[in-house]
């Protein structure tokens, strides 16, 4: 288990470099986001994603979501980005809004039983964004075993996940409100979970045209 304090620019670059190497080797990394701490794996490594789900103590019926560094990366992961999805991303990214979209059928990945969809988000956290720019899209979930409270500090994450994670990036305390989830796979967009972005704010953007 390797821990890097990333609360200065120089330290962050060092930690992100080591975390990127760990991810490319198929290991798990814990890092802060703008919501809670996340646990991430190489999105295109089926074995790595399986290790992530095992650390979460859950099966493929609860698939991982994907974090991206920018909208262009998200577009490459989905079959198409409908206008409503683009408006939401441009309004709330980087930020605490997750979008469920049809996955690009050509992608060689296995996030779990996604039924042909992928949930994507661009987090508003400098450490997370630096890691995503360095390592590419990450399969991720909150840094806690299923059924336990999400970690908002590195200490909470290490206590809950321990040696199952190769590298931990410490960014101090995070928030404790999850992202809002919007499903854009059906004809009518639907808010599946209200989190940090209010339902009313989502509806305002969806009906802005």
TrEMBL record:
Pfam families reported in the protein's UniProt record: Sua5_yciO_yrdC
Protein keywords: ATP-binding, Cytoplasm, Nucleotide-binding, Nucleotidyltransferase, Transferase, tRNA processing
Subcellular location, principal: cytoplasm
Residue span(s) of domain YrdC-like: 13-197
Keyword GTP-binding carried by entry: no
EC number: 2.7.7.87
Enzyme class: transferase
Subcellular compartments: Cytoplasm
UniProt-recorded Gene Ontology molecular function terms: L-threonylcarbamoyladenylate synthase
Gene3D superfamilies membership: DHBP synthase (3.90.870.10)
Catalytic activity: L-threonine + hydrogencarbonate + ATP = L-threonylcarbamoyladenylate + diphosphate + H2O
Signal peptide extent: none
Keyword Transmembrane attributed: no
Family: Belongs to the SUA5 family.
Protein name according to UniProt: L-threonylcarbamoyladenylate synthase
Provenance organism: Streptomyces luomodiensis
Lineage: Bacteria, Bacillati, Actinomycetota, Actinomycetes, Kitasatosporales
